[in-house]
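Supplementary material to the annual report.
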Amino acid sequence: MSVRLTDAPFDPGALLSDFARNRTETGAVATFTGLARAEAGATTVLELEAYPGFTEAQIGRIADQACERFGLHDLAILHRVGRIAPGDPIVFVATAAGHRRAAFEACDFLMDYLKSRAPFWKKEHGPSGERWIEPTAQDHADRERWGG
Amino acid sequence: MSVRLTDAPFDPGALLSDFARNRTETGAVATFTGLARAEAGATTVLELEAYPGFTEAQIGRIADQACERFGLHDLAILHRVGRIAPGDPIVFVATAAGHRRAAFEACDFLMDYLKSRAPFWKKEHGPSGERWIEPTAQDHADRERWGG
Amino acid sequence: MARVLLFGALRDLAGWRERRIEAASVSALCAVIGQEDAALGEALAGKGVQVAVDQAIVRDDAVLADTSEVAFLPPMSGG
Amino acid sequence: MARVLLFGALRDLAGWRERRIEAASVSALCAVIGQEDAALGEALAGKGVQVAVDQAIVRDDAVLADTSEVAFLPPMSGG
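Predicted assembly:
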């Protein structure tokens, strides 16, 4: 299990190559990659802040929950911090399980948590200034599907 | 949109790297990779047969449906045929959308279709002989979630 | 003569993958095959077996041309 | 003196990210900050702001030691 933050651009494909390798009992690997959107020019840079140490620990607790709840063989989470250009990956989540339903659901669960509960603060910079982003009502509703 | 069959091993990570590149309005990329399981030695080789031409066309029709139903920006499907060793990828599905719910659901939908309706025939070879695999009751139930 | 293709378990049962057989319709083709190999004939009529003519799924009464490609497709399973 | 950290919009509002402030509890710390900067004091008490002491989420009456690290965490949003 791997939970990491990085302030450098990363390639989600390289992470998937590593994650899917040498698994002879894992039938299913699901991944999610979140990319920074340009919003047709309205967003020029996304700025992500974490609380180093605390952020990884909080994500790690949810990662443990996901492993147990969905019977995962493994998972990996990499989250970008700092200034992110449109088109660059912000977050990568990979889950490995015996069968596809568990892999999909765990990936979905982890993303819902990351969107609305993980200790990150996100600011959009654009031609009309900057603004802090809070989770949407949809983000909260998505997370509540899982209880707790 | 890309729908392909291959009789050679492939790296799902290389496919994700290509798929996620140069997207400035796609917020969400979901992928699924199906791997051949060793089943603790019970399966030594998986053999996948397609009906060339027909198989790609049938998958293409469902891919079109997925694009429309989930408002996808893009999708990619690569399916292995021939003899597949445990641990090797069998299928890779990638979906791109504005937001994560559509990307996840489309990926899930496509896999449910591939498991129970796409023109493939699958045989397990193991120490106790060989047997043809048919979709499980769970596979049919999974597909029926989507109607049709 | 139509070009007949068998897939999956049907091919193993028949012991062949592709043959040319003279028949005016899919049902006539099944009858010809069933006379020669009763077990295969029964399997072709089995639950979940679909028939494609020239790569389009058809009903059993579909008419065949001399150049038709007829494929018998047992229950499918990918991924 | 406790080490006080502000994140997200709270940092922009305060104009600082980290300071050392003397206080015996989280509520006392909020009062000290509020006296100096009323808008920030109000924001710290705002809906959805959580407080962590030494990287564990605590209630407002949590006691502080001289070496405590206190972080004010506005509503979170990752991914």
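The mean pLDDT of chain D is 94.
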